[in-house]
Amino acid sequence: MSMRVTLVFASAPREVHETVLELPAGTRVGDAVRTSGWAERFGEVDGLSLAVWGRRCSPEQALHDGDRLELLRPLRVDPKVARRERFVGQGARSAGLFAKRRANSKAGY
Asked: Which member of 8, 27, 61, 65 lies 3.0 to 4.6 Å from 3 by CB, making a disulfide possible if both were Cys?
């Protein structure tokens, strides 16, 4: 008995690779990545995180028919730091939810 699993990897921004694998039932996540051959194609994928349908998983997790296995690149910048830098660049009055408020209103309204 076999199952179909979709393997997805974004090697760069706006560059997504997707393939459908036919695997035997009971295949684990790590085995699926090795079977795909993407380690040779994209270089070292051991440093990447793995997820099934957007939820992080370990290489020992079993796959099921119809699963979407995702290879996740590490973040280059902490999202909190990036948001703070954008806010500083835009200024407090020109950006955000409360940029356009009524005259003589309290902050946040």
From this structure: 65
- Could you give the count of Cα atoms lying within 13 Å of 1 in the half-sphere of its Cβ? 5
Q: What is the number of alpha carbons within 13 Å of residue 56 lying toward its C-beta?
A: 5
- Domain ranges (residues) in the chain: 2-72
- With 0-12 CB in 10 A as exposed, 13-18 as middle and 19+ as buried, what is 99? exposed
Q: Dump pLDDT digits (tens) for 30-88.
A: 888 888 887 666 655 556 788 999 899 988 899 999 999 998 888 788 889 888 888 77
- Under a CB-based contact definition with an 8 Å cutoff, are residues 51 and 70 in contact? yes
Q: Name the CATH topology of 2-72.
A: Ubiquitin-like (UB roll) (3.10.20)
